Amino acid sequence: VLAEHWEECDIDLGPEQVLTRVIKEGRRLISEIGRRPDELAGVGVGLPGPVEQATGRPISPPIMPGWDGFDVPGFLDAEFGRVAIVDNDVNIMALGEHFSVYPGVQNLVFVKVATGIGSGIIIDGELRRGSQGAAGDLGHLNVPHDEQVVCRCGNVGCLEAVASGAAVAAKLRAVGIEAHTSADVVRLVKAGSVEAVPLVRQVGRTIGEVLASVVSMLNPSVIVVGGPLAEAGEGLLAGVREVVYRRSLPLATQHLRIVQAQVGYQAGVIGASVEVIDHALAADQLHTLLASA
Amino acid sequence: VLAEHWEECDIDLGPEQVLTRVIKEGRRLISEIGRRPDELAGVGVGLPGPVEQATGRPISPPIMPGWDGFDVPGFLDAEFGRVAIVDNDVNIMALGEHFSVYPGVQNLVFVKVATGIGSGIIIDGELRRGSQGAAGDLGHLNVPHDEQVVCRCGNVGCLEAVASGAAVAAKLRAVGIEAHTSADVVRLVKAGSVEAVPLVRQVGRTIGEVLASVVSMLNPSVIVVGGPLAEAGEGLLAGVREVVYRRSLPLATQHLRIVQAQVGYQAGVIGASVEVIDHALAADQLHTLLASA
Fold it and tell me: Which candidate in A121, A180, A247, B193 could, as Cys together with A212 as Cys, close a disulfide (CB 3.0–4.6 Å)?
């Protein structure tokens, strides 16, 4: 990573405003390191919703008003004159973690536990997106025998409604403890809060119920738990492991590792770069092939 | 299919006895059509348990005593002098259905509902087996909010323990109706039994609970329900659809088809043949490549 910039952004402002801001900061970063936009191999973008792989357009993203079907690659291409690769944000985090820490692992599931819960699935060495780019939508899997909280998707019993950072913070507020974000929860856990520690352990168990199904279906060899709530560390992971090793068949768990993410906030940046590099190399190979034909 | 033979076989007899019988019938079929064993491209085999892809050996198969780690390909190669490709039986059924009916579909899940319940997963056009060949093990996914029946795997709440052909037959016997196999249940449904029809519909709903998770995770465009209990037809499928369309997110279901298997008992034979042909063609390409190098 040659240069970086971080800021919160209100996705509700819509694509033109948000992407114009991204372009401005992108141009500033390029000039900061003394390079030119035409030296870019491409631009990689992660969005918090499903993205149609062929077009790079968000499709019916539940938390991105105004973005449905917007031509994100076209908007960025026009500015940078370079191809823009757009993908779901959890997918690029999965790619970043896989590339950086588990390059030889063929089957890996990356789970992001944040305000929502999502996952990126690598099978036989490649990220898998499904037919509409909606694969990995772990957050709305049904949690067996759990309380019937109504989820923002309109269903009841969704994992995300009971085990996300937002859900834990709400439970803490209900017992009079000030907490709003995953970071607040993590801070409380690290301080040894007698309310927060068992709640996070229980969240780990609930996530474990759903991951046990994923293990039986996909037989991965590594599950990486990342996102802000994973910063709570072993308390969360212990809950996950406890249920996965109890619920899944021995054959699927005998060589399974369940680990905390290592790359942190840069996972998405690295994963998006990997996608751009793959695309650029594939185009190079195509040119070589066409030139030799 | 040039020649075929069907018989029930007791897998408990162990690999030598069962495979010796297979070899004898195989040789008879080849001579029946006036061909020689050395004209075979290979031998394809499906086994009712997890198979290690690299070696073709069954690994910890729960219902195949004496088969664990047995060198099935070696035993058959020695007899036929041709490569034997061994895979899980539901995997080859998935391949057979995919090859025969949905050759252009990239993401397909095939579910076999029989004495047990299993699935074969095709993602981005290829069958996916997971790290130990255990992928697709749908039968031991936890069913939300269902009765706590103990499964043969030792856990409670497994899909297979409440929604297999064996489970339905047991429920029918509990109300005094003679039924032992999936075929018995199907016969009762076709005859309009007031006990069997609603039970099978409910089994469809229960399978739908688990398939809703599969849809959210993998975003397939086709789910094929096969195996003997699927012969019950629309009653079972209606239950599956009812729950999948209610539980899964709209994006993942808008283009999803849930259909009954069409190929029937030959699906496994066709799928095993497809695997052998793929292997033979890959070997051919390798020879051409080595010859030209």
Answer: A247
Q: Does this model's pTM top 0.90? A: yes
With CA atoms as reference, the chain A residue closest to B130 would be A219
Residue among A51, A88, A149, A249 with most chain B CBs within 10 A, to mutate = A249
Strand partners, B290: none
- CA of B180 vs chain A CAs: smallest distance (Å): 27
**How do residues A85-140 score in pLDDT, each as one tens digit?**
999 999 999 999 999 999 999 999 999 999 889 999 999 999 999 998 899 999 98
Pick from A128, A214, A255: CB nearest B123: A128
ipTM of the complex: 0.91
Instruction: Give the residue on A whose Cα is nearest the Cα of B245.
Output: A155
H helices of B219-266, in order, are: 234-247, 250-253
Q: Strands A57-58 and A51-52: what pairing?
A: antiparallel
What are the tokens at B159? 């899909």
For the beta carbon of residue A237, count every other beta carbon within 10 angstroms.
20
Taking the CA of residue A151 and the nearest CA in chain B, the distance in Å comes to 12
CB A25 within 8 A of CB A51: no
> Which pLDDT belongs to residue B293?
64
Cα gap A156→A149, rounded to integer Å: 6
Say if CB B208 and CB B247 are below 8 A apart.
Answer: yes
Q: Which B residues, 199 through 218, put their C-beta within 8 Å of a C-beta on chain A?
A: 209-210, 212-214, 216-218
pLDDT at residue number A22: 95
Q: Which residue from A229, A89, A70, A63 is spatially nearest to A153, judged by alpha carbons?
A: A63
Average confidence (pLDDT) over A207-227:
96
Judge: B218–A252 Cβ closer than 8 Å, yes or no.
no
Using CA atoms, how far apart are residues A180 and A168, in angstroms rounded to an integer? 9
Q: How distant, in Å, are the alpha carbons of A118, B66, B239, B246 from that of B243?
A: 22, 39, 7, 5
- Both tokens assigned to B119: 């699935």
Question: Taking a C-beta distance cutoff of 8 angstroms, is the pair B124, B108 a contact?
Answer: no
Using CA coordinates, name the residue in chain B closest to A209.
Answer: B142
Give the DSSP per-residue string, chain A. ----------GGG-HHHHHHHHHHHHHHHHHHTT--GGG-S-EEEEESS-EETTTTEE-S-TT-TT-TT--HHHHHHHHHSS-EEEEEHHHHHHHHHHHHH-TT-SSEEEEEESSSEEEEEEETTEEE--SSS-TT-GGGSBPTT---PBPTTS-BSBHHHHHSHHHHHHHHHHTT----SHHHHHHHHHTT-TTHHHHHHHHHHHHHHHHHHHHHHH--SEEEEESGGGGGTHHHHHHHHHHHHHHS-HHHHTT-EEEE-SSGGGHHHHHHHHHHHHHHHHHHHHHHHHHH-
Alpha-carbon dihedral sign for residues A111, A113, A114, A116: positive
Taken as a whole, chain B contains a residue count of 293
Please tell me the distance in Å from A242's CA to the nearest CA on chain B.
14
Of A134, A212, A255, the CB nearest to B132: A255
